[in-house]
Input
Amino acid sequence: MHPSPPPQRPTLQDGPTQIIANDRGHLLPTVPRSQVSPWGTFVGTWEMPPRIPPARLSLTSRSAAAAARLTAWTRQPTALRRACNGVRTEITGEIWVHLLGAPGGAHKPPFSPKSI
Output
């Protein structure tokens, strides 16, 4: 089975185009502006941290210490978290704590990432 050929023309967008700048490139007075910076909160390559947190983080099959360390790392305040193009990590999964030496290999009930 072969992939379908690309369309001849791009698809049309719904609604009218909103003009936000004049002929000289200046923003119109009706356009909302950032109070923080005239360039907004965009983070470029030089302002990004050396390690970018993942978009999705699963805590399943991680120890409680590792899960606490990962969630603390993803919640550290950085320029990337405050930016409009920043990362908002979605934390999923549950942590099961295996009780060593318990009869029958008992397990404690899971706890959520919010309780870490």
